[in-house]
Amino acid sequence: MTNRENVDVEYKRVSVQELRKDIVAFANTEGGTLYIGINDDGSVAGVEDSDDTMLRLAGSLKDGIAPDIMPFVQIRAIERENKTVIAVEVAIGSARPYYLKDKGLKPTGVYVRRGTSSQPLSEAGIRDMIVESYGKSYETCRSLNQELTFEAFQKEMAVREMECGSVQMRTLNMIGEDGLFTNLALLLSDQCEHTLKVAVFQGTDDVIFRNHQEFSGSLLSQLEAGYAFLDKNIAVKSTIEGLRRKEQRDYPMAAVREALLNAIIHRDYSFNGSTLVNIYDDRIEFVSLGGLVPGLSMEAVLMGVSQSRNACLANVFYRLKLVESYGTGIKRIKALYKNSEKQAVFESAQGAFKTTLFNLNIEEQAETVISYQPDAEKEIVMNLLKRQGSITRKDVELALSVGTTKAYSILTKMCDEGALIMQKAGNRTQYKIR
């Protein structure tokens, strides 16, 4: 036995709770031996009751460290200088990183051996160690957050009359072989750290916001709330054909749903940014982080080839009947736009993937604008004002079946000519007869 502490040797005078961090550090680094009953200078002090010390120590390690570290620990009593010393031999663990349960999977709970001391490991170091131990699949790696709840997930399972216990969560790969939650569980939990941001812009650029909202929580909650927001903010164009009223949404809602599902299911969650949906007058853009899976070309994707980055997440959505089958999202979107003048566009860049859906009614709106002469437009606006007392730009868009830019131009011109006055009403702008 060496008489000095080293990267793989630690001395403790007595058995104290803090020695657990040294055990964790050994298991996370190269293994080592901790001796109880030896002073820092290497002199032997011994322990009084070796059986009690070993019993209490074993219980402390079993209850206080996760994952289970006991298969890699040997505790034995040895004799040194006619005194009893406890030797705790720790092998490098196979389920690193090990951590203190009461501190969690974070720097205050994860330690590694540096020289003669045990030091906390940074969050970046923890992630790297997880990848080293479990491979590069984000969703199957152990979650840094183990304090997870699953209200939204359990609700979805209950609606489909599916069991939602630990057995089912293991089958779905939400719980790993070490008994801890994976990143897949994190994504489906109420504590999911990623968000969905949806913005509605005025016109065809991102200069002026009309509305925006950020959705958090389980990816299942984000999907439901995000789709409801899109549904609410996608207009319906009404036309009269004979005695019948014909209505058509600006976008096929089935295509919107598929694009949103693709953005959520296939993005790279090792990036911390949000999934983005931007609504303009003429298009909707769905932007997800990560780009294409390495080795898969855009040509192959458009041909119908599918390779899911998050196979386990896709499987959960499939089991919940949120997707019909694997790899059909882009094909369905293309089919829904088959007879449209502007086809859906799919673009990939390093670190990002974008789906663009175009407004089906935008050409019809342009044709309708041409049919109105300036004086007729003004007359319609004035008649609307006489009926309502005040109007908004949106009222003019609907009355004339025009886009935002055209409606704003008409109202601005009428204000300049002295026919109307513009007033602020909270967050809204209203127009009245001067």
UniProtKB/TrEMBL annotation:
- The segment(s) forming the Schlafen AlbA-2 domain are 5-121
Q: Which residues cross the membrane?
A: none
Give the superkingdom in one word: Bacteria
Mind telling me which InterPro entries this protein's record contains?
RecG_C_sf, Schlafen_AlbA_2_dom, Schlafen_AlbA_2_dom_sf, WH-like_DNA-bd_sf
Entries under Pfam families matching the protein: HATPase_c_4, SLFN_AlbA_2
Extract the PANTHER family matched here.
Answer: GLPR-RELATED TRANSCRIPTIONAL REPRESSOR (PTHR30595), SCHLAFEN ALBA-2 DOMAIN-CONTAINING PROTEIN (PTHR30595:SF6)
> What is the protein name given in its UniProt record?
AAA family ATPase
Q: What is the lineage of its organism?
A: Bacteria, Bacillati, Bacillota, Negativicutes, Selenomonadales
